[in-house]
Predict the structure.
Amino acid sequence: MTRRCVCPGSYDPVTLGHADVIERAAALYDEVVVAVLHNPTKAGLFSPEERRTLLEDTVAHLGNVRVELFANRLLVDVCRDAQAEAIVKGLRGGTDFAYELPMALMNRHLTGIETVFLPGDPRFEHISSSLIKEVARFGGDVSGLVSAMVHDALVGRLQPEG
Ligand code: PNS
């Protein structure tokens, strides 16, 4: 039986912290579905298709990872359709845990699916998509926090005049 997990998120855009968690999930499970869960009422910096392209580039070296887009769907339904036995998420610290715990409990309440938390690598503890966008927007250097492709996409989108 194929053991499959889902790594869900907004991924607007994917960071090296996300990439680390996905890579570690890919070592634990036979297959990983990276689910970009998009809320059409919330405008992101990148379109869902752009987020997928950036993610696909980031996970291109991992043969057992695929990226899929979903809009207006419950994560538990995505997991059921993918025949995934677990949700895998990274935790950078207590604030993440406080945010993630109710979702993990709600998801288990809905279908029984478990959430597996991986401790975030301390190298990436200060990295979030929103902080990266803020730093990049005001001209800060985000190289080393995101892939080269994400870096170029951020600079192109947020600092178009260079
Ligand atoms: O990267 P994020 O924004 O922290 O990811 C949050 C996400 C997309 C995983 C969460 O909002 C989610 O699961 N959304 C799908 C809708 C859903 O199932 N909501 C109920 C969660 S208990």
Notes: The radius of gyration is 15 Å. Residues 8-10, 37, 74-75, 103, 106-107 surround 4'-phosphopantetheine (CB under 6 Å).
